């Protein structure tokens, strides 16, 4: 008879073998992995079903375009209030009740917005602020949960598949909303999103109850569903060198990304104006030219990002590690904006930005979630909300302020903004190196802790 020490490993099932095409999946990991992937798929589907409603409601109001710009800045102020409230809830509630309560609140808001919009009440600005908070907080909450239920080793192997659920949910949500809006109209999409979110919440409870049963079976008391901790959300970030580095990294990332979108938009607009002036494009067709460009551009970025997510991300993390993977996007951005500064031609800048965004939506999106693997449970739920919501929006706001000042008072053009992004990318790369080193140090300390 074979002794336990020499027994053959349990063979992988067909689902495990299929998932190994994309990452290293071990025996028994497939069910929870697929359920979490479906859960985030539903959350992102609901968000992208709601996005056209957001645009329609705010742009339909007088001065809608200007209101939209101001609302982005206002989101940072709203989050400065909402994030501490979330932290206070996390202090009092266990994990499952926290996620149920927060998600149920957002679901309950959707029929209210639907009824107000049907009654012709102008809710564009309020809904814009609401969906901005939803999109940041609920997604951050999901990833906090994923960080909580997986060990660092499991997260580094499996997060790439879960992140594919998010990216495919965004693509599917965009596709289904474009079809639903033609048959149902704009505001009924809010009710459709509420149904999808309700399904995602039921699925979360299935996952967590299944996880609780498994914990009891394994006599694992370390992850009991107890209140998360009594620390202040912003204080957790400000008192922790590692979390400050992560916050600075995400802040600069969003500043560069938002400024980059302005650079691309300016080049597209200039190319369209040049074609009109040269007689190659009718003035009435300029909007169609810009819309067609962005439709093709986003389509290629999404497809490239999904391919990278499925076949490249997990392998890059496995062979290079999280610290090196964290440096890839700032290097790509450095090259993209150097090209934009030296050769500000649409055909070239388009592909440089395509490469940057595809890497951002796949590799960087996955690695930034892994940064919370070596943190405490309280840091996962509270500090992550600060970084993934308030800090993200603050980066967008500062980028908008820089564009406003640069164009209004200093007459800066595309080339100057591109060089500004080159300088910011160097800062970003430095922060990535420092954050990667601290991640490795904290991960090693976490792995050695049980033996201590």
Quick structural gist:
By secondary structure, the protein is mostly helical. It is 81% helix and 0% strand. The chain has 2 domains: 29-230, MFS general substrate transporter like domains (Growth Hormone, Chain: A), CATH 1.20.1250.20; 231-445, MFS general substrate transporter like domains (Growth Hormone, Chain: A), CATH 1.20.1250.
- The mean pLDDT is 88
Structural class: mainly alpha
Shape: globular
The major sheet is characterized as: none
Radius of gyration: 23 Å
Q: According to CATH, what is the topology of the largest domain?
A: Growth Hormone, Chain: A
User: Low-confidence parts lasting 5 or more residues at pLDDT below 50?
Assistant: none
Q: For the record, what is the CATH homologous superfamily label of the largest domain?
A: MFS general substrate transporter like domains
Beta strand %: under 5%
What is the CA–CA distance across the termini? 36 Å
Helix content: over 70%
When the domains are counted, the total is: 2
Under the CATH scheme, which class of the largest domain? Mainly Alpha
Write down the secondary-structure element order: HHHHHHHHHHHHHHH
- What is the CATH architecture descriptor of the largest domain? Up-down Bundle
Number of helices: 15
Report the count of strand segments.
0
């Amino acid at each position: 008879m074979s002794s336990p020490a020499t027994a053959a490993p349990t063979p992988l099932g067909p689902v495990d073998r299929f998932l190994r095409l994309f990452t290293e999946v071990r025996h028994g990991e497939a069910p929870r992995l697929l359920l979490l992937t479906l859960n985030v798929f539903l959350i992102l589907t609901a968000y992208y079903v709601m996005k056209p409603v957001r645009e329609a409601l705010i742009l339909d109001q007088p001065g809608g375009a200007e209101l939209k710009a101001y609302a982005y800045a206002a989101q940072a102020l709203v989050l400065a209030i909402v994030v501490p409230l979330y932290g206070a809830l996390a202090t009092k509630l266990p994990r499952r009740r926290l996620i149920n309560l927060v998600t149920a609140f957002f679901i309950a808001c959707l029929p209210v917005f639907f009824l107000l919009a049907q009654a012709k009440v102008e809710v564009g600005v309020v809904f814009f602020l609401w969906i901005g908070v939803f999109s940041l907080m609920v997604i951050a909450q999901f990833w906090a949960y994923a960080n909580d239920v997986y060990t660092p080793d499991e997260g580094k192997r499996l997060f790439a598949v879960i992140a594919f659920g998010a990216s495919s949910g965004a693509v599917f949500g965009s596709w289904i909303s474009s079809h639903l809006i033609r048959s149902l109209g704009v505001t009924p999409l809010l009710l459709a999103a509420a149904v999808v979110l309700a399904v995602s919440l039921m699925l979360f409870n299935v996952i967590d109850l299944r996880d609780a049963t498994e914990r009891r079976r394994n006599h694992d008391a370390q992850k009991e569903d107890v209140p998360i901790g009594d620390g202040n959300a912003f204080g957790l970030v400000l008192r922790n060198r590692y979390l400050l580095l992560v916050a600075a990294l995400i802040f600069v990332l969003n500043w560069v990304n938002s400024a980059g979108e302005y650079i691309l938009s300016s080049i597209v607009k200039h190319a369209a104006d040049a074609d009109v002036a040269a007689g190659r494009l009718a003035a009435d067709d300029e909007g169609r030219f810009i819309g067609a460009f962005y439709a093709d551009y986003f389509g290629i970025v999404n497809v490239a990002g999904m391919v990278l997510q499925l076949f490249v991300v997990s392998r890059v993390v496995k062979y290079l590690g999280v610290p090196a993977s964290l440096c890839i996007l700032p290097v790509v951005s450095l090259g993209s904006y150097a090209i934009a500064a030296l050769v500000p031609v649409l055909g070239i800048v388009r592909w440089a930005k395509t490469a940057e965004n595809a890497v951002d939506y796949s590799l960087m999106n996955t690695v930034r979630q892994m940064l919370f693997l070596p943190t405490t449970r309280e840091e996962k739920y509270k500090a992550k909300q600060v970084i993934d919501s308030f800090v993200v929006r603050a980066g967008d706001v500062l980028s908008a302020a820089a564009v406003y000042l640069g164009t209004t008072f200093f007459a800066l053009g595309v080339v100057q903004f591109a060089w500004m992004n080159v300088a910011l990318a160097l800062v970003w790369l430095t922060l990535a190196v420092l954050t990667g080193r601290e991640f490795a140090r904290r991960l090693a300390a976490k792995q050695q802790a049980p033996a201590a």
